[in-house]
Amino acid sequence: MGMRKTLLALSLVFFLLLASSLVLWERHEATTCFNTPSCVLNNAGINEGIILMQHHENEWRIATYQNGTLTLHVLKLKGNIIPKVEHHEKSVKTYADYSPLSFEAKRVGNLKSVKEELLVKSNDTIRIFEGALKSIPCREFITLCPECKAALGDGWELVRLGHTNVTGGYLVFPSKGKCASSFVLKILPHNGTHDLIEIEYPIGTVYGYAPRLNLPQIERTNLPTNVSQYFDSAWGILVMNGEVVLNPDPWNIVDELGECRMVSQITIYSNGSVKRHDYGKPCWRR
């Protein structure tokens, strides 16, 4: 009986060690894959049209473009014992053609471990973005493009999508600080039926054509001096003739902030009047 108990105990110890080893191996494999761009893309089923890949903590954000549609893939590594990847998608229609900035998944095959980095295509080479994020303050957009019908800048620390009725969909390149944008979206007069869209990013410029807006050029926009406090709480800005809209895309910001957070869209007119609309998600957990 004593020998049988000993063998049973040894068998149990061996089984626990084997199970622990398998769990550790699975965790190692999952973590290694999640830090390897090609493995992440393969598991997500993303093969082409990749504009950029951003790795931040236990999350990848991958922006893609296909046939007039921008898609943001958010992949999160969840679980402490055997991690699993959650994959969420969001898409918007865009007038701009992002294909000149895009690349195929096979182009990142030689990259092994990437942490807290932004992968982009530059001079036809896939590399880690190392340029300084030179963000343009919101206030500079007011005088940035007087010949434009509209000028937009938007910010967030992580890549995300944006959309307004004026501009259509666009990609928000990561930026630092509130009310500062690392890209500029311009809408310029083109002909009797269409306007030209030009979006200048740190990695290149994309173009497209949108249905003609019945708007004059911005020319000179003067704002009252007593509205400067509104800029401090804004993430983005849309400038048109005679009016400035702060947080022109409130719902996508609300999605980023989550429940129990409010975002105010503020329209400031050159005559001094201000219109405010609040957006937010209900706080279900209260």
Notable traits:
single chain, 286 residues, alpha+beta, 9-stranded antiparallel beta sheet, 6-stranded antiparallel beta sheet, 4 helices, 19 strands, 39% strand, globular
SSE order and pairing:
Blueprint: H1 2-34, H2 37-44, E1 50-56, E2 59-66, E3 69-78, E4 84-93, E5 96-97, E6 118-122, E7 125-128, E8 136-137, H3 138-141, E9 150-154, E10 160-164, E11 168-172, E12 180-181, E13 184-189, E14 194-201, E15 204-211, E16 236-240, E17 243-246, H4 250-257, E18 262-269, E19 274-280
Antiparallel strand pairs: 1-2, 1-6, 2-3, 3-4, 5-15, 6-7, 8-12, 9-13, 9-16, 10-11, 13-14, 14-15, 16-17, 17-18, 18-19
Mean pLDDT: 85
Model regions low in confidence, pLDDT < 50 over at least 5 residues: 9-30
List the strand order in the largest sheet.
5-15-14-13-9-16-17-18-19
Q: Ends: how far apart?
A: 59 Å
Radius of gyration: 24 Å
Question: What count of helical segments does DSSP give?
Answer: 4
Strand content: 35-45%
What does this structure look like?
The chain is α+β, with helices and mostly antiparallel strands and 286 residues long. The chain has two domains: 34-128, no CATH class; 136-280, no CATH class. The protein is 19% helix and 39% strand. Strands 5-15-14-13-9-16-17-18-19 form a nine-stranded antiparallel β-sheet. It has a six-stranded antiparallel β-sheet with strand order 4-3-2-1-6-7, with helices on one face. β18 and β19 form a beta hairpin. The chain is globular, with a radius of gyration of 24 Å. It starts with a helix and ends in a 6-residue tail after the last strand.
